[in-house]
Structure formats: C-alpha cells, structure tokens
Predict the 3D structure of the following.
Amino acid sequence: EQITVAFLGLGHMGGPMAVNLVRAGYTVAGFDVVPAALDAAQTHGVPTAASPLDAIAGADVVLTMFPSGQHVLDAYRGAEGQPGLLAEAKPGTMFLDCSTINVDEAREASALAIAAGHRAVDAPVSGGVVGAEAGTLTFMVGGEAEDFEAVRPLLEVMGKRVVHCGGHGGGQAAKICNNLILGVSMIAVSEAFVLGEKLGLTHQALFDVASNASGQCWALTTNCPVPGPVPTSPANRDYQPGFAGALMAKDLRLALNALESTGVAARLGPLASEIYDTFAAEGGAGRDFSGIITDIRDKS
Ligand code: NAD
C-alpha cells in the first residue's frame, strides 16, 4: 500500500532527504516555516503543503528534521497559538524525528506521541548534506522493535546503514556518544600534530607512525587535520566542511547535557564542548571541525 509522509523541516538535510523519498515513490507532503526552503524543495520535485496541518492530513508518517529539541516539542505540542501535530494527526500515526536533539527531549517527545495514541521513534543521522543528497546517511534509531521494523524501509531509502540502538532516546544516545569520541579524538590528534611541529617531526612521519600504531583513529586516518597525508581530508581544501564546527559544538553540547544529567565523571567531554564552543564563536562555525588545529597552533 502507498505510504504518505508529511516531511516537516526542509533545510540543508531535510530538503535532499525528502527528494530521495519522492524519487523512491513515496507520497510526500513537505512543509517548512521558511518560504525559501519550501520553494527550493518544490523546485527539486517535492510536493509541498501550505501549512503543517495540510501536510499531516492523512499522513501515515510525520517526519521532522528540525534544528533543536525545542522545535520538535513545540511542533508536537503546539506553541504560540499553533495547534499541535499530536492532537491533529490521525490515530496511530508514526512520529519519526530525525533531528539531533537531547536524549531527554527525545524521550519526552516519544512519550507525548504515545500518550496521544501514536507511535514514535527517534532516528538522528550522520553523514551530512553529502550523505543526505546521495542517500547514504547512517540512521541511529531508538524505539520499539516493531516500530523500528516499520520505519526501516523508509530509512533505507535515505540511508545506507540503519541501526536499532534500543528504546526511546537510544538513537540520540548513540549519536552523541559517537560524536563525543570524535570531538575528543580530533583535539588529541591536532594537539599531537602541533606538538610534532614544535619537536621537528614532519606531518608525514607522525602520520606514518600513528596511523599504523595505537594512535590510529578516524580523526587521523580519514579526516586528518593537516594537509598532505590524506589528500581527501578537509585540511587540503582550507577546511571547507565536511563536518562544520557549529555542528560539532552543538553535538558536544548535547553530550555535555547528558553527561551532567547522568552524573558521569567525565572531564574531557566538558572540555571538548568548551573548546568547540570557542572555535565556533571565533570563526570556526562554518569551517570543518578539524580546523581546530589552526586554533591550537595560533594560540601556541
Ligand atoms: P537547517 O537549519 O538547515 O534545517 C532545519 C529546517 O527546519 C529549517 O529550514 C527550518 O526553517 C525548519 N523548521 C524549524 N521549525 C519548523 C517547524 N515547526 N515546521 C517546519 N519547519 C521547521 O538544519 P539542517 O542542517 O538540515 O539540520 C537538521 C537537523 O539535522 C539538526 O538537528 C542537525 O543537528 C542535524 N544534522 C545535521 C547535519 C548537517 O550536516 N547539516 C548532519 C547530521 C545531523
């Protein structure tokens, strides 16, 4: 049977994701509060609706791709006199949130949806705009097993890996734990390269040793923060993203919130969050997050 998807949030990620659903034959009704985003999606073949309620009328799935958890909760509940999606959707609608938000917010959003008689999963992504366009995103999914199976075919249209990470909030948890590793490891790799420079090591020598030794990691061998050793890394194109500093700062902030609310005795996570907040505020927001090495070098 034909599945109808209300696709809300047609920004950098949502726009191309919606295009891939349309191409795969899904009936899509797109909506964004920014008219330019709506127009762009329409130009790329996504049927659009005049309002969120028009978009969700008759939808089987309400997919959201918003900037933050507050946007998701406001849309679900209704805010500023706007009717809430949960109250207006037909009973049993699948609420599929692909935004990157706090674990607690994801759990709250899912609980609200279920209390309103719907189904819900959180399914944040990694892979960036390039992955959204190519349909090669990784989806990290939190929710009941049967709901995971229900959304899997749809997610497989937009992504190449779809991983069930446990109950509600599990997708968000997996994403921020991964990005905590990534943020900290990029800082470590960058500090090591700057230290190597001071000690007279060439970038290539350090790379040749560490990439074949216990310092090996993605931040070194795929997204190497110095130009040369890995020709495809953003460092070779003046740190054009890639994975923008603003997004790393955002994800580490979410990790920090979770570290604080769970009481984990973490030290590097909070520090990495602070380091990337500063990087983003001082001109790194639109640069690849590996550009952190230039900050370290400049301040040395
Ligand atoms: P974006 O700001 O480009 O898009 C978000 C869109 O949501 C905007 O167009 C905004 O107008 C719209 N929006 C907000 N509230 C709305 C509402 N109530 N109804 C309809 N539309 C609404 O952001 P993005 O880069 O597409 O990222 C979306 C999410 O994906 C974020 O949570 C982000 O952290 C996550 N993410 C982004 C990337 C990336 O590389 N850009 C990678 C992985 C995950």
